């Protein structure tokens, strides 16, 4: 919740704005803006504490890996399409233990599917509804498909302790709950477009099953 004495909260408007900026021409995605949005989403998991520890550390690692690729070679990692074309051309996608950008983006894509599904189901709840069931359902529809049984079991058990919608938003958004609730529908819309573009790109290059 804090780095030193600094307290920060989750801001859905920033997520919306960064993802909106990420939607560039030719159905492509700007990686810098994508990572800016994802870093804000990471705050959500971090602020939830141990409930989402099964996914937060992994996502943070993937964000950092992709950011390092971008910092090292911004020309070939500027957008998702440029990155995949570059790694395909240079045969980097199936090179032993080499950590490539495409595989890293695929893992983040799967995490984003879960986040969006959970927030969409959350938007349908009343303030006093518990969030555990919709979180479990969102997880089972998305990330659970890619996790071993031990991780799935631990995640589902951890979700039983989740609070009501109102308390959850207060925990992660601080005093700006209504601001976040108001922008949620638009955030879900732009996130769906990011997901669709990413999915279509991996479909085009047949990379959904990258090892």
TrEMBL record:
GO terms for biological process: negative regulation of interleukin-1 beta production. Residues 29-173 form the Glycolipid transfer protein domain. InterPro entries: GLTP_sf (IPR036497), Glycolipid_transfer_prot_dom (IPR014830). It holds the Pfam family GLTP. It comes from the Eukaryota. Belongs to the GLTP family. This is Ceramide-1-phosphate transfer protein. The lineage of its organism: Eukaryota, Metazoa, Ecdysozoa, Arthropoda, Hexapoda.
């Amino acid at each position: 919740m804090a780095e030193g004495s600094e307290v920060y909260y989750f801001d859905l408007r920033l997520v919306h704005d960064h993802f909106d900026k990420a939607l560039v021409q030719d159905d492509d995605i700007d990686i810098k803006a994508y990572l800016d949005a994802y870093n804000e989403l990471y705050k959500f998991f971090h602020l939830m504490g141990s409930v989402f520890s099964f996914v937060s550390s992994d996502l943070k690692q993937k964000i950092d890996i992709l950011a390092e690729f971008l910092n090292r070679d911004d020309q070939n990692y500027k957008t998702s399409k440029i990155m995949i074309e570059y790694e395909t051309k240079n045969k980097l996608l199936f090179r032993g233990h080499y950590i490539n950008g495409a595989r890293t983006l695929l893992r983040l894509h799967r995490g984003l599917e879960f986040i969006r599904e959970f927030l969409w189901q959350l938007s349908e709840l009343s303030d006093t509804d518990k969030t555990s069931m919709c979180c479990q359902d969102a997880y089972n529809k998305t990330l659970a498909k890619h996790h071993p049984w031990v991780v799935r079991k631990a995640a589902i058990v951890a979700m039983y302790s989740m609070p009501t919608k109102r308390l959850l938003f207060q925990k992660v958004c601080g005093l700006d709950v209504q601001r976040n609730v108001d922008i949620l529908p638009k955030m879900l819309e732009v996130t769906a477009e990011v997901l669709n573009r990413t999915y279509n790109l991996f479909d085009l290059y047949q990379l959904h099953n990258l090892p």
